[in-house]
# Entry
Amino acid sequence: MKAHFTSADLKMIAMGTMAIDHMAVAWIYMYGYGTDPVWSKVGIAMRLVGRMAFPLYGFLLVQGFLHTRNQTAYFLRVLGLAVISEIPFNLVVSGKIFWIRAQNTLVLLAIALLCLKGLSVYQKTDASSENDPSAALITSVPASAVFMAAAGMALAEIFRADYGAAGILFILAMYWFRNCPEKRTIAGAATLALAEGVFYGGTACAALFFLNRYNGERGRNLGYFPYFFYPFHLLIFYGAGVVIHGIHF
# Structure
């Protein structure tokens, strides 16, 4: 019997794998344990598990965009949370309050939402795909949509958002092939390999197993917990590291 996962299930898996990934960053690599042969292997294993988080969040972003009643409000929530999360992100990855070398993943998600809004206007699909997801056919890709996607990828690189242009491509693939699981899986695997290389990207593809078994249901109501989990868990991990090792600069 094929397993089915609700949106709430996918969110819980995404939060759990993300937490494991950030534990490795905050507690192993931040304090130099990554140079130890044993801790290095532990850190790599934890980060491999954590590679599943972004694909799940990217897929859930698309689902949220498709089902929200107010796309503008949805965008503003993600953008606002990106701003709130920047300092916790900086502290975990650099030990500094201000760090311009990279921006948190929610910055990428906010940019992706702008791209999705553009694609929702320009994309043309076969009408039968609404009733038969396997019959989805892309009839045309307007030049305006291509330029808009390219602009989103450029913004991701300019702002140095986590996962960069390849991350935007992954989310756009999740949207463009939303009615065709086979094409979505191929495109998703290709963009994940592009974003993270064959080693880590290959592990990230494990997320495709879960998202391809999404049953379209909301599941239990998690409220705003998944939104605030991102900055709060980063602050907790950083704070625990400070208690154990002291402030790191």
Q: What stands out?
A: The first strand starts at residue 124 and ends at 125. Residues 124 and 184 are 17 Å apart (CA to CA). Residues 125-139 have pLDDT under 50 and may be disordered. DSSP finds ten helices and two strands in the chain.
